[in-house]
Amino acid sequence: MDILETILKRHSYRGKYKPIPVPREDIIKIMEAGLAAPSGCNKQTTSLIAVDDPEMLERVFSVIEPPVGETAPCIICVLTQRINAYRDKCFAVQDYSAAIENMLLAITALGYQSCWYEGHITDEDHIGYKMAQILGVPDDHELVCFLPVGIAVTEPVIPNKRSFEERAWFNSFMGQK
Fold first, then answer.
1. Helix, strand counts (H, E) of the chain
2. pLDDT tens over the chain, length 177 residues
3. Long-range contacts of 156-162 (CB under 8 A, 24+ apart)
4. Cα–Cα distance for residue pair 37/2, rounded to 1 Å
5. Which of 24, 21, 11 is closest to 108 using CA atoms?
6. Residue 31, domain extent
7. Looking at the 3D structure of the chain, how many domains does it have?
8. Which of 6, 94, 137, 141 could pair with 132 in a Cys bridge, judged by C-beta atoms 3.0 to 4.6 Å apart?
9. CATH code for the domain of 25
10. Rounded to an integer, what distance in angstroms lies between the CA atom of residue 36 and that of residue 54?
C-alpha cells in the first residue's frame, strides 16, 4: 500500500473484532514501526507491550470500564517515561504520539483496524495504572494508551472530514494577504 493512500485510509475503528489471531510477525512489524518514530533529543521515552495471550487479554480487559476494544485478539499498550530532553522540557507526549501514529499507519497498511484509546484509560479512574499493574510495568513508566488490533467484524465507517480549504492555506491564515 502506498504511504499516502495508507494515511488517507486510516481512521478509528470502535466496533467488534473477528476472533482471528494477529500473527506475531505482523505484531512485530507494527511495534517496530512505533519504535522507529522520532523522539525529542532521541530520548526514546516510548516502550510497548503487545498482549495476545487470551488469558492475559481477559485480565487486562477486566479493568477497562466501560469496556472498549474487548473483542480484539491483540492489544498494544503504549508506555512512556517522563524524561527531560532539552532545557528542562519533556517531549514524552510528542514521542508516544508519533509512535502511536506510526503504529496506526502500520496497522492500516497490514489490513487491520484499531483505535487510539488514551483519554478513556488516563482519567480519574486510573485504568491505565490498573492495566500496568497486571502487566508488571515498573513505576517509572506510565501506561498512557492502548491500541486494539484485529480484523473488523463490520465494515468500518469512515468519518467525514472538513475540506482542505477550510483547514489549510498558503502564506497566511485563511489565505489573507
1. 6, 5
2. 599 999 999 999 999 999 999 999 999 999 999 999 999 888 899 999 999 999 999 999 999 999 999 999 999 999 999 988 888 889 889 999 999 999 999 999 999 999 999 999 998 889 999 999 999 999 999 999 999 999 999 988 888 999 999 999 998 998 775
3. 156/11, 156/13, 156/15, 156/113, 158/11, 159/11, 159/12
4. 18
5. 11
6. 3-175
7. 1
8. 137
9. 3.40.109.10
10. 28
